[in-house]
Amino acid sequence: MDGTRRIVLNQANSPAQNAKTILHETAHALLHQTLPDGEYGKHRGIYETEAESVAYIAAKWAGLDTKQYSISYVNGWSGGSSELIKQTAEHVRQAADTIITALETSRDQ
Fold first, then answer.
1. 20 to 30 A Cα–Cα from 11, which one of 20, 74, 86, 90?
2. What proportion of the chain, given as a percentage, has pLDDT over 70?
3. Helix orientation angle between 67-78 and 15-32, rounded to the nearest 10 degrees
4. Per-residue DSSP letters for 89-107?
5. Rounded to 5 degrees, what are φ and ψ at 26?
6. Taking the complete model, does pTM exceed 0.70, yes or no?
7. What are phi and psi of 49, to 5 degrees?
8. Are the C-beta atoms of residues 52 and 70 closer than 8 Å to each other?
9. Which pLDDT tens digit goes with each residue over 55-91?
10. Cα distance between residue 109 and residue 94, in whole Å
11. Quick one: pLDDT at residue 108?
12. Distances, alpha carbon 11 to alpha carbons 16, 22, 58, in Å
């Protein structure tokens, strides 16, 4: 991290993986950009669970299957807690809706 808030993609990744990465990082920007200093580190599991869940939903909408990667990522960061998944569901839904709406609008232009 260089503090610039740029998304840097790994050229070795597939285009689909890089697209999912962009969705994941966009979810962080929508949901977590205004967190107070130190907050992200304290609750990283919650924030990573949210971002990857959003990426999974938006990628699925776009026709990208990220299930193999996303499910294990969310399971790891959530500690397998179905309660955490339920607690983050509304944030995830709102952010996924924002991204999908933006993609639909862009596609229709």
1. 74
2. 97
3. 40
4. HHHHHHHHHHHHHHHHHHH
5. -65, -40
6. yes
7. -60, -45
8. yes
9. 999 999 999 999 999 999 999 999 999 999 999 999 9
10. 23
11. 79
12. 12, 13, 22
The encoded tokens of residue 100 equal 């999908």
Q: Any idea what DSSP says for residue 35?
A: P
Q: In one letter, which amino acid is 71?
A: I
Say if residue 1's pLDDT is above 60. no
Contact at 8 Å (CB) between 103 and 62? yes
Q: Indicate the burial class of 14 (C-beta count within 10 angstroms; 0-12, 13-18, 19 or more).
A: exposed
Q: Tokens at residue 52, please?
A: 């990857």
Tokens of 69: 């990667």
Structure tokens at 26: 């966009």
* Angle made by CA atoms 67, 52, 73, in degrees to the nearest 5: 60
Say which amino acid occupies 104: E
Q: Which two tokens stand for residue 42?
A: 């304290």
53, amino acid identity:
S
By percentage, how much of the chain surpasses pLDDT 90?
85
